[in-house]
């Protein structure tokens, strides 16, 4: 763990990020990451293949923060198809301050490790909709 990081990002998480980033499956998918507070490390919570963004509302615990790496099959108005990948930081507003600080402190480190520039923050799970994602990705 480096002096400016609050948590470790172990090789298994780095490998999962790399594998997810270079996957060939054209379906929507999510890689959920969380902080293991006891071990002070980032860990993979779940890899979900073929998942719509709205389905994450039922999968992610409402009262716990998560880092979500999401890849989305986007159909453009001119007929092109792209597969943007984004980093979504979910942090409910009603969690302990210590947990908010821990997750916020690791956000940039994890974002850099994942190599993603499309970064969005969500406070309520109900915000995770396809319309919300399309609006964010079209900017």
TrEMBL record:
**Where is each ADF-H domain found?**
3-138
Which PROSITE patterns does the protein's record reference? ADF_H
Q: Where in the cell is it found?
A: Cytoplasm; Nucleus
The UniProt keywords, alphabetically, are: Cytoplasm, Nucleus
**Pfam families recorded:** Cofilin_ADF
CDD domains the UniProt entry points to = ADF_GMF-beta_like
| Matching SMART domains | ADF (SM00102)
Per the record, the coiled-coil ranges are none
Q: Name one GO biological process term.
A: actin filament debranching
**Any idea which GO molecular function terms this record carries?**
actin binding; Arp2/3 complex binding
The terms describing its cellular component in GO are:
cortical actin cytoskeleton; nucleus
| Source taxon at top rank | Eukaryota
Q: Which InterPro entries match?
A: ADF-H, ADF-H/Gelsolin-like_dom_sf, GMF
Gene3D superfamilies found in the cross-reference section: Severin (3.40.20.10)
Which family does the UniProt entry place this protein in?
Belongs to the actin-binding proteins ADF family. GMF subfamily.
PANTHER family per the UniProt record, alphabetical: GLIA MATURATION FACTOR (PTHR11249:SF2), GLIAL FACTOR NATURATION FACTOR (PTHR11249)
The name under which this protein is listed is ADF-H domain-containing protein
Q: What is the lineage of its organism?
A: Eukaryota, Metazoa, Ecdysozoa, Arthropoda, Hexapoda
């Amino acid at each position: 763990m480096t002096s400016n990081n609050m948590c470790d990002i172990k090789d298994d998480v780095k490998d999962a990020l790399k594998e997810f980033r270079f996957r060939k499956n054209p379906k929507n998918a999510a890689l959920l990451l969380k902080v293991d507070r006891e071990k002070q490390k980032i860990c993979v919570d779940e890899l979900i293949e073929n998942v719509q963004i709205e389905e994450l509302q039922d999968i992610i615990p409402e009262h716990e923060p998560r880092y979500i790496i999401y890849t989305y099959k986007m159909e453009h108005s001119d007929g092109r198809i792209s597969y943007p990948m984004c980093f979504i930081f979910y942090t409910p507003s009603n969690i302990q301050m210590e947990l908010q600080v821990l997750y916020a402190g690791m956000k940039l480190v994890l974002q850099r490790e994942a190599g993603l520039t499309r970064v969005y923050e969500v406070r309520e799970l109900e915000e995770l909709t396809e319309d919300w994602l399309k609006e964010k990705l079209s900017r």
